[in-house]
Amino acid sequence: MVINPAAARTHPDTVAAVMRTFSAGGWQGEVLATGGPGDARRLAEYGVAEGVDVVAVFGGDGTTMQSAAALVGTGVSLGVIPGGTGNLLAGNLRIPTHPVRAAEIIVKGRARRLDLGRMSRRDGEHYFAVACGAGYDARVMAGTAAANKHKWKFAAYVATTFRLMEELHMARMKITVDGVELETEAAMVLVANCGEVIPPLVRLRHGIQPDDGLLDVVLLRAGNVVESARAIWDLLRDAPAQGQDRFVTFARGREIRVETEPIEPVQLDGEPGGETPFTATVVPGALDVMVPE
User: Fold this and answer.
1) What is the separation, in whole angstroms, between the first and last Cα of the chain?
2) What are phi and psi for residue 192, nearest 5 degrees?
3) CA neighbours within 13 Å on the CB side: how many for 107?
4) From CA 191, how far away is CA 112, in angstroms rounded?
5) Which residues contact 132 (CB under 8 A, 6 or more apart)?
6) Is residue 20 pLDDT above 90, yes or no?
7) CB-CB contact of 179 with 207 (8 Å)
C-alpha cells in the first residue's frame, strides 16, 4: 500500500486500521510512504517487481494516478483508498470514502478494466483516469493551497472558484478530434474519461463511461459570472453527448489535440500538468481497478 502522509485523511491510526482489514481478509501487505515528487510511481514499480497482486493507494487523485502509471499493462490491479480532497476516481467508481470500507472492497470486490487517458509531456508519459483540462479549471486547481485542501477538503476548491471568478476569460481554442478541427472561444476545455466531476451530484453528460474506448470533449464558453451560470446549466442538462449550443460544445474521439491562444495552464485529475498545447489519447483497457462487487 502506497500512502501519501500529506493527504487529508491518512492518519497513522487509519493506516493501521486499513492494514488490519487486509490481514483479516488473509492478505499480506507492506506500507510504503511517499516523500516527494515521483515517489508514488517508483513505489508502485517496486510492488510490480515484487510480484504483488494489488497496489493499493491511500491518498488523493494525484498519488493514485502516479501509481497507476506504473501498473499500465502489467496485470497488477489498482486498489483505491480515498485519502485526498477530491477523490474523483473513487467517487466515479462508487468506492466508499471511509478508508476501512474501501479496503474491504479491495479484499472482497472485483477487478474492473478501465480506459485511461494519456498525455505526453517533456518529462514523459502521464495518465489521467477522470479528466484533463485547460483554462479556468486548471487555474482553480493550481490556485488552491495544499493547507486549505487539507483543512477544508472540497470546499477549498469552491472558495478558489469564486475568488478567481474576476479573472475569468475566454481563449481562442483549436480542438482537433480524430483529425476533425473545431475553432472556437472558450473559458475551459475538459477531456473526460469519466462522467462525474463531483460524484455523484454533478455529471458532465450521460453516456460518458471509463470503459468505452473513447474520450469526451466538453468546451465551456463563458466570459463573466452570468454566462458561467448559464454554461453550467446547459452542461448539466440531459442532452445528447455530441453537439453544440451557445455556451457548451461536446465531441467524442480517441485522440484530442488542444491548442490555445493565449497559452493556458493544464491539469490532469486535479494536478498541474504544464501548459497548452497538448494531445490526449485514450488507452483502452489500460488498467484493472478493484471496485465493489
Assistant:
1) 21
2) -105, 135
3) 18
4) 22
5) 117, 119, 190, 191, 266, 267, 268, 269, 273, 278, 280
6) yes
7) no
Q: State the helix-helix crossing angle for 155-163 and 136-143, rounded to 10 degrees.
A: 120
| Residues forming beta bridges with residue 56, ordered by sequence position | 79
Q: What is the dihedral of CA 225, 130, 128, 37, to 10 degrees?
A: 70
Q: What are the structural domains, with CATH classification, of the chain?
A: 2-108 (3.40.50.10330), 131-284 (2.60.200.40)
Question: Which of these ranges, 51-55, 82-86, 180-184, 201-205, has the smallest mean pLDDT?
Answer: 201-205
* Cα 63 to Cα 3: distance, rounded to the nearest angstrom: 8
Residues 45-61 pLDDT 10s: 999 999 999 999 999 99
Q: What's the pLDDT tens digit per position in 144-172?
A: 777 777 677 666 766 777 777 777 789 99
- For the stretch 83-140, pLDDT in tens is 987 899 999 999 999 999 999 999 999 999 999 999 988 888 899 999 999 998 888 8
What contacts 165, CB < 8 A, 6 or more positions away? 225, 228
- DSSP letters spanning 188-226: EEEEESSSEEETTTEES-TT--TTSS-EEEEEE--SSHH
Instruction: Tell me the one-letter amino acid at 5.
Output: P
Backbone phi, then psi, for 85, in 5-degree steps?
A: -90, -55
pTM of this structure: 0.88
